[in-house]
Model the fold of this input.
Amino acid sequence: MDAYSTLERSETRASTRSAADTAQARHAASDPPGKGLSIAEVARRDLEATLQLLADRAQYITGAAGAAIALRDGHRVLCRASSGSAAPELGSCLDLNSGLSGESVRTRTALCCADANDDPRVDRESCRRLSIRSFAVMPILRHGAAVGVFEIFSGQPHAFQERDLTALERLREMVNIALDQATQDYPTPASPTLDSAGVEVPAGSGSISSGATHAVTGAGPERAKEELGSPTDLSGHSRRDSKSTDRIGACEQCGFPISESRRFCLDCEAKGFRASSSGFLAVPAPAPGQQGIRSWVITNRYVIGMILISAATIAFALLR
Done:
């Protein structure tokens, strides 16, 4: 397992304070936006809740003992969502100087440790202390830069197969959608300390490597920090191009938020909504009496989408 280090004394206080703020925001989830919360706090509250849901789904679908989502926060990579006994605590700092997470960030591919006792790429002492025998790492890529990792852990060797990595890849797309939505609904003002573009990534680099379990060689540990790019806002966008990249579309079948370049979400595509000779299937225009319902659906499409993806993941797990 990669080293999720306990933060230094000064960082621990900040981490604890951040965790407390997150807990307070979750308790206030029933309050209307803006009631006692700033725009940034509302955005963080909604994002943390969504990330936690995705971590819970990852653990449930793959049968893992734990799942975690770590995202860049300034010059650090912090655990933003944690599910299960084997997962690191919220606020833990991910060390990218060694381990599989650093390799995953540098190569921009999903990597899997089949048995921590025999894999020289992992910290065996950390794995032994947390009773981890196998785990998988999926880099979170946004606009050419790695902004974090999505990890699942198990106490059994050879616990994860290709289908688990496929499920993790789909959940990674949901993380990107959540980051897009947070930026669209609650744009943050530009900051001079967060103004730099990300690093370009080769085409297709977000796909799962067919040799995900082989030993990785290549760049040194300092390369991992470079691949994470410069500090950005919570969406992973650089401040320089945030105005032109924070747009998000909606699935033409179910209304779930998707990338602007897509027409249908992955679940609708899996149900048979494929491209035809004239393009993707079109949704009929609503009748005049349906305008109110359509407006309500559009306004609440994000909540509806999360309910649909939860139902789809449960069905996927039951039919597996």
User: Anything to note?
Assistant: The domain at 4-246 is CATH 3.30.450.40 (Beta-Lactamase).
